[in-house]
Amino acid sequence: MLKKHAKFFENILFIADLFVIGLSWLFAYYIRFYSGLLPAEKGIPPFSIYFYLIIPILFIWGFVFKTFGLYRPKRISPYLNEIFDIVKACTFSVLILISITFFFRQYEYSRLVFLVFWIMTIISLSLERVVFRELLRYMRRKGHNIRYAIIVGTGSLANDIFNRIELHPELGLKIKGFLSQDESVVGREINGIPVIGTYKDIRKIIIDKDIDQVITALPIEQHALTVELLKDIGDEMVDIKVVPDLCEFMTLRGGIDELDGLPIISLQDTPLYGWNIVIKRTFDIIFSIISIIITAPIMVLISIIVKVTSPGPVFYKQERMGLDGKKFITYKFRTMMVNAEENTGPVWAKENDKRKTTIGTFLRRTNLDELPQFFNVLKGDMSIVGPRPERPVFVEQFKKSIPQYMLRHKMKAGITGWAQVNGWRGNTSIEKRIEYDLYYIENWSFMFDMKIILMTMWKGFKNAY
């Protein structure tokens, strides 16, 4: 019965897609020739030659959407993945349509119609899919369109999967029970759900319980057993999901990638790839140039005061560790006496540090000593927002005692950061600083950067000695 329901919803979605596609084509014709937005200097072609093209359009889009798997169940998949698939499928379909119409020598179809149609289909189909998925999720929350599943395993991973499924009733998944390797635990309950059998009973349970989905959650040491189970039920008409026991090793933005159809598990990765790199770097360049221009008079004044009030250079150069553990030289206005660490070695500045110059205390308190770091940003060694760079000598100390410390170098170092605007700066808890740095990397977005910049302007830094 559930399979029939799934087919019914698939057919409804297919019909809705075709309706939206056909409407988008007609709307593209209207926008091009009748809306006045795009002047038709060569006149308006007959509506009929565009109307009759709907039939091949519906055939092409239907075939391509089926080929791209846009009608497979997507209870768990995020919206963005589906929208990205729609973009790819619509682009491919438009290219096919353009290729076909090239041979219609008696007609010259408007390229602007194709362009508007391409944009319209992507936007309208994406919105239609979101509405359709939300309606299904609403139905599932009300107890309709439910699919039944079993979890193979009874360990912590199986328990975690069950808890996450329970948190999302919109998925429409109901766990009928757990399977265990140990017969002695059959009949016991895990979170109120019974252990209904052993692994060897899986075929019988799938049939007797009318199971739609099997979720395997076995530990790494039972990999061979997982393989045997999958072979055993490979010909059953159920969806099979395998959750690898690698969650404890997933740190930054872990997930599943694909290489020519081969799934690859990513345990940690940087959020900066593709357009994200372009957006962040472009913003860094523009913001740093504007900041340098605005603060130039202040930097000139500070340079004069530093030079007059204490012997030595105006700028202080120090080696720091940045993206991917690469070292670079950071620039600051000098706030301490020359050779301040000659007797102490590398140490952090403290409150009422006697090594500071007369103007040094003020510069550190106001963070004006860091204005030259905008040149580091312009050069590309740093970013406006990111984890604060640390000296290599301290990095060597921290990475031995603080778990995941080096992961902060998966993002380019910044002038300001999430840890800094929350008070974790200077001589404060390194563990809390790392916690905030990793949270920033895990949840990075351009808008998150904007939030941190606004917080920096409003609150400033704390704990600056």
Would you give an account of this structure?
The protein has 465 residues and is α/β, with parallel strands linked by helices. The protein folds into three domains: 2-141, no CATH class; 147-249, Rossmann fold, CATH 3.40.50; 275-459, no CATH class. 48% of the residues lie in helices and 13% in strands. It has helices at 2-33, 47-51, 54-67, 79-101, 111-141, 156-166, 202-208, 223-232, 275-309, 360-366, 373-379, 392-401, 418-421, 430-442, 446-459, and strands at residues 147-152, 173-180, 189-190, 193-198, 213-216, 239-242, 255-259, 262-266, 315-321, 327-333, 383-385, 414-416. Helix 12 links the parallel strand 11 and strand 12. The longest helix is centred in the middle third of the chain and has 35 residues, at 275-309. It is flat and about 80 Å long.
Strand order of the largest sheet: 3-4-2-1-5-6
Q: Structural class of the helices, strands and pairings?
A: alpha/beta
Shape: flat
**Beta-strand share of residues:** 5-15%
Gyration radius over CA: 30 Å
Q: Indicate the multimeric state.
A: single chain
Low-confidence stretches at least 5 residues in length (pLDDT < 50)? none
Cα-to-Cα separation, first versus last residue? 69 Å
